[in-house]
Specification:
It contains 19 helices and 22 strands. With 605 residues, it is of the alpha+beta class. The chain folds into 4 domains: 244 residues, FAD/NAD(P)-binding domain (3-Layer(bba) Sandwich); 138 residues, Elongation Factor Tu (Ef-tu), domain 3, CATH 2.40.30.260; 73 residues; 56 residues, Orthogonal Bundle (DNA polymerase, domain 1). Strand 10 and strand 11 form a beta hairpin. The protein is globular, with a radius of gyration of 25 Å. It starts with a strand and ends in a 10-residue tail after the last helix.
Length: 605
């Protein structure tokens, strides 16, 4: 068997990689150990959030499947971050996780992706240009390009108290042989950790003692396409931990694999286990826990915010200390996963492994920590694998134009010591790269990449014309003696107010009106952000060869000196992506180089 593109892994990254490749006309195979678990939500049953929701809309604009599947299987809608401006709002849906996985599997079949249930043991051939994959049962599969999207399965180990077993997820295998092959080929591999929360039998809890988390009805959808979405809703709740929850965790710390040293890998800073929270925040007795159904009418609830690898007895005490959970039945206890991932110095911004010609990587194997990040990287990796198989050079998005570009830039080329999570604060240009304008922002890149769908191109043109019509109407109208464009900048003026003042705008649609208003509202800030980004791009290639010792540079903080001395970056661009190095430290380096008589600017020294 020989394919244009072979994808390893059936998680969120692998699915989008395979779909992108198939849409671009490549013969594609997806290899996974258990086909029945393709697309499964291993952790919380939700899609989107702050920055993540915008990323899902970017995936949709690039032709991906996550947005549509999230819309069709949503059981609750919320818009996060409403206390701040619309530019950083985060759409999020609670998902029917079994239905979501089933829909993603059907998308693979519809696109003609061959799905093979097998274990990948190794890359075939030499490291510089592997000829395919070696599988346990099938043997060798030939491929022009390869995408490794192995998730948390590389040499993965599961932990719960004193329990230890192999697996990348409960009920699944650990991909030890592939990890050994990558190490044998001298790829730099490190260990990270993640975890999951207990699942509770729904009928065993008292919902009346919890706080209802209201659904936000409305017309919002992740996808720009017209898909029929069933109106099925579930109630979600919140509870807070208390002193008894804390004491249950503290009393079991001696049996914690995290604190006993059994787990060496570092977990995500922004999604710690509950035992980690009580140790790091000793004065805080209350922590918020979201009580989320795993599906429409499902028998199970997921306790988002109570991730733990403590022994079963401790988990039971913790859960039953929560209001309404006094008689709770635990269907599945929480556990931790330690796994291997590739060091980010191994990849370039196209997600290709630098020491190979045709191998790409995406998802948690690159140290990311969410479904959305994995899916977006998978789409880019799959598209670039298809481009390479078709004789074209891989490409990448710019940092200024998308959250995908921000993430790729953050991840590539610089070693990270903890799993990566995307936030709106990571994007300097976040006032311009919003969820409302993802289609118009991303369509030019989708066309260049080769993933744009014909119908999406038509929607893009329709949206572009609508926004042009809105802009023209606003330019010619006056409201209360002022131009409508000036009024756009007033606090409290949104699409509804503008349509009421200029009734003719209604024909262009509320979303187009809202985007034009936000563009005008943020215009001055965006202009300044672009200038900062242009300056940043100019200095990224400046060489740091003149620096003998970072420890002797007074213009940068001590933490940055240590980080830079350890990494020895070649350019300012590499230096700025090192964890612990702030913007102020980069500016200090520029001052230092100038003091040494080096001209900084114009991309040279």
């Amino acid at each position: 068997m020989r394919y244009d593109v072979a994808v390893v892994g059936g998680g969120h990254a692998g699915i989008e990689a395979a779909l992108a490749s198939a849409r671009m006309g490549c013969s594609t195979v997806l290899v996974t150990a258990r086909t029945c678990r393709i697309g499964e939500m291993s952790c919380n049953p939700a899609i989107g959030g702050i920055a993540k929701g915008t990323l899902v809309r970017e995936i949709d604009a690039l032709g991906g499947a996550m947005a549509e599947s999230a819309d069709v299987t949503a059981i609750q809608h919320r818009m996060l971050n409403r206390r701040k401006g619309p530019a950083v709002w985060g759409p999020r849906v609670q998902s029917d996780s079994p239905a979501y996985a089933a829909r993603q599997r059907s998308r693979l079949a519809e696109c003609g992706v061959d799905v093979l249930e097998d274990e990948v043991l190794a890359l075939a051939g030499d490291t510089a240009g592997p000829s395919g994959l070696v599988c346990r049962r099938t043997g060798e599969i030939g491929a022009g390009s390869i995408v490794i999207a192995a998730g948390t399965f590389l040499a993965a180990r599961l932990f719960r108290g004193s329990e230890r077993w192999r697996g990348g997820r409960i009920g699944d295998i650990s991909s030890d042989a592939l990890e050994e092959d990558l190490r044998r080929r001298m790829f730099h591999v490190k260990r990270f950790k993640t975890g999951t929360s207990p699942r509770i039998v729904r009928r065993s809890v008292d919902h009346d003692r919890m706080e209802l988390q209201e659904d936000e009805p409305g017309s919002f959808r992740f996808s720009f396409r017209n898909v029929e979405c069933p109106d099925r809703r579930e109630r979600c709740y919140t509870v807070r931990t208390n002193g008894r929850t804390r004491e249950a965790a503290l009393g079991a710390l001696g049996s914690s694999p995290l604190f006993a040293g059994a787990i060496e890998g570092r977990g995500p800073r922004y999604c710690p286990s509950f035992e980690d929270k009580v140790v790091k925040f000793p004065d805080r007795t209350e922590h918020l826990v979201h009580v989320e159904p795993t599906g429409y009418g499902s028998r199970l609830l997921y306790l988002n915010g109570l991730s733990t690898s403590l022994p079963r007895e401790a988990q039971e005490r913790m859960v039953r200390s929560l209001p309404g959970f006094e008689r709770a039945e635990i269907a599945l206890f929480g556990y931790a996963v330690e796994y291997s991932s590739l060091d980010n110095t191994e990849i370039d911004r196209t997600l290709r492994l630098k020491r190979t010609e045709n191998v790409f990587a995406a998802g948690q194997i690159l140290g990311t920590s969410g479904y959305e990040e994995a899916a977006a990287l998978g789409l880019l990796a799959g598209a670039n694998a298809a481009r390479l198989a078709g004789g074209k050079e891989p490409i990448f998005p710019c940092r200024a134009g998308s959250f995908l570009g921000v993430m790729v830039d953050d991840l590539s080329g610089v070693s990270r010591d903890e799993p990566y999570r995307l936030f709106s604060s990571r994007a300097e240009n976040r006032l311009e790269i919003r969820q409302d304008n993802a289609l118009t922002r991303m369509m030019p890149f989708a066309e260049e990449l080769g993933t744009a769908l014909a119908a999406d191109a038509e929607r893009f043109e329709s949206r572009r014309m609508a926004e042009a019509g809105v802009a023209a109407a606003i330019d010619s109208a006056r409201i209360e003696g002022r131009t409508a464009r000036e009024v756009c900048r007033r606090p409290g003026w949104g699409a509804g107010e503008m349509i009421a003042a200029i009734p003719g705008l209604v024909e262009f649609g509320q979303e187009a009106v809202a985007s034009v208003i936000l563009d005008e509202k943020y215009r001055g800030y965006v202009r300044r952000s672009r200038k900062r980004l242009e300056t940043r791009e100019r200095i990224r290639s400046v060489s740091l060869d003149p620096v003998d010792s970072y420890m002797e540079i007074p213009e940068i903080c001590f933490e940055a000196r240590e980080a830079l001395e350890a990494a020895r970056p070649r350019t300012l661009g590499e230096a700025e992506r090192i964890p612990g190095v702030r913007t102020a430290d980069i500016e200090g380096l520029v001052v230092y180089l100038g003091r040494r008589g080096r001209r900084v600017g114009g991309g040279s020294t």
